[in-house]
Every structure is written in C-alpha cells, then in structure tokens.
Amino acid sequence: MKLSRKFPFKSSWVIGIAGGAIALGLLGLGVSRLISPKQDLVKPEATATPLQRVEVAALGRLEPRGEVIRVSAPNTELLKRLDVKQGDAVRAGAILGYLDSYEERLAERDFAASQLVEAKQKLEAATQYGEAQIQEAQTRIQQVQAPGGSEVAAQRASVRQLEAELTLATQDLARQQSLRQAGAISQQALDQQVSNTRQAEEKLKNAQAVLAQTESEQAANLRNAQAQAQSQQANLPVAQVQTAVQSSQQNLNLAEARLERTIIRAPSAGRVLRVVTRAGEAIGTNGILDLGDTSQMFVVAEIYETDVGLVRLGQSAVISSRNGAFSEPLTGKVSSIGWQIFKNNVLDDDPAANADSRVVEVKIQLDNGKAVEALTNLQVDVKINVQP
Length: 388
Hints:
The protein has a six-stranded antiparallel barrel with strand order 1-7-10-9-8-11. Strands 2-4-5 form a three-stranded antiparallel beta sheet, with no helix packed on it. It contains four helices and eleven strands, in the order H-E-E-E-E-H-H-H-E-E-E-E-E-E-E. Helix 2 runs antiparallel to helix 3 and helix 2 runs antiparallel to helix 4. The chain is rod-shaped, with a radius of gyration of 60 Å. It folds into three domains: 44 residues; 167 residues, Efflux pump adaptor protein, beta barrel domain (Elongation Factor Tu (Ef-tu), domain 3, Beta Barrel); 146 residues, Helix Hairpins, CATH 1.10.287. It starts with a helix and ends with a strand. With 388 residues, the protein is α+β, with helices and mostly antiparallel strands.
C-alpha cells in the first residue's frame, strides 16, 4: 500500500517536468520563428552615394553700383542751400548745394584775386622800368663805342701821318749831313734840318701819347657802360620778387581751396536716393544725402561660411522677393566674392532663424535692374546655381 501511494506521486511529478520542457521548447521555437523573419528582411546596407549641391540659397539686399555713397560736410556746419531733391540724377562734380560760409569764403577769394591783379600790375611796371634802364645802359655802350671809335681812328691816322713826316725829315737830315761834309751847304741849313727832325719826333710822341690816352678812356667808358647794363639786368629779378606776385598767387590758391570746401559736389554720377539734411539745418553725423548709381543694380548675398566654397565667379543666380516688391524673378551672375567673413546683416523673418551667422558677402550683377532701381536695400531671396 505504501508502494502504491508513492508511485502515483512520482509519476505526476515526472509528467509535470516533461510537460514544462515541451512547453519551453514550443516557446523557444515560436520566438525563433518570430525573430528569423525579421532577420531575413534585413538586407546588407548598400553604399550611399553622396548628394551633390545644385544651388546655394541665401538672403541678400539690393544696392546700386559702387554702393550707396553718403555725401557729407564738416559737422556743425549749416546747410545754406540744397539744389537737388530725392530722385534727381546728377553728373560727377555737379554742384549739389552750398554751406552757410560760402558767401564769406567767396569774398575772401575775390579779395585775394584783386591782390594778385595789383601785384601783377606792379610787376609789369617794375619790369618795364628795369627793361628801360637796361636799354639806356645799352644805348650808353653804343654811344661810347661809336664816337670813341671814330676819335681813336682819327688819332691813329694822325700818328701814322707824323710817322711819315718824321721818316722824311730823318732822310733829309741824313742827306744834308752828307752835303755839309762835302761843303755843299752851310752849317745853318744843317742845324735847321736837325731842328725840324726833332720837332717831328716830338709831334709823333705827343700824338702817340694822345692815342694811348684816348684808347684807355674809351676802354674805361665801355667797361663802365657794360657794368651798368649788367647791374640793371641783375636788378630786374629783384624787382619781380619785390612785387610779391608769387605770394599773392599762393593766397589766392588758399582762398579758392577754402571756397571749394563750402561747395557740395557729387563725388560720382548717380541718383539722389535720400535727402538727410534740409536747407538751414546743421549737418550732423548722418551727412547731407545718399547717392547711388542705380543705372546698374547689384545684389549683395550673404552666403554662409560653410557654403561659400561652392560659389564661383560667373555662376548664374535667381533673385526673388518674398514680399512681392517685384513680380518677376530677376537673373544675374556672380561678379565678386568677398575676402572677409562678417556677422550677417540681413535678418530672416523667421524668428527661429540664426541671427548670429557668419557669412561672406557675394555680389551678383543683375542682368536687368530697371525694375528695382528704386528699391535700394530691399531684402531679397537669392539662389545661386552651383552645379559643376
């Protein structure tokens, strides 16, 4: 009896263990079947082909050729008159207006000009006087040379005549001495010839002395006249310096430069985009007006520093306005790429957009900017075709 009660208990225990093992086996088989289909569905990942960028998008702004020029003048100056208004086209160097000090500087310029005229008149008078003095000295030279030359020539002729007379007297004396030795003439006649010969010698000596004195006086007078002429020529530049023409000219140049500073001129050709200061107002740090050449418009696109490496000169671009400022998209080409990185200036309307991006300014020349020539600084959307 004891054996019969123990046996059923053991067999049920064995049957329970066997049933549990079968259940675990069936559970493991189900799990393996559930997992294996998923594993079969997973295929080896193919090698991904990197995507190529076809365009670079950015925000930009419109600006005229040469950017916007701020025409200004010294601060605290009053603007007397402004001769242009917004929208006017002007040429380079054209007068835009005048400062309040214009009239005062104009009077200074006119006074300096009158001083220069007076100095030039004095110069002309001094020059004419000096030239007259020089001419007088040259005339004196001619006067010395002409009569003096005739006097010297006459004296030289007299000397030659006396030399001939002395030669003849000497020959007669020699002949009469021979005759006296032969007893043909008296001693008295010989003495007379000796006296005549001595007189001829004295006349010749006197004439020669007069000739030497005349030649010396002529040379001295000629030297004096030439010295006077040279002195007058040397004094002529001194008279020119004393007239202070050069100083007057410098004063006039200075007055004209000061006057020019009171005239407001256009630094280049363009159109008046905005008038900042009106007539009668003091000129402040914002200047007088903005000027730009709207005949050719550009777009300044702010390209992210991570994208600027894709941008090249000559690439085409499409420009549009998200606010409908112009209806048809504009086209253009990249004309220049900046050399510096800045913080972006054109902010997106999206409040979640990055407001502190690092960008490079890229300029795009519009093919036809007529429709936007009055929209300087308008925010636009830019798409640059960067396909190789």
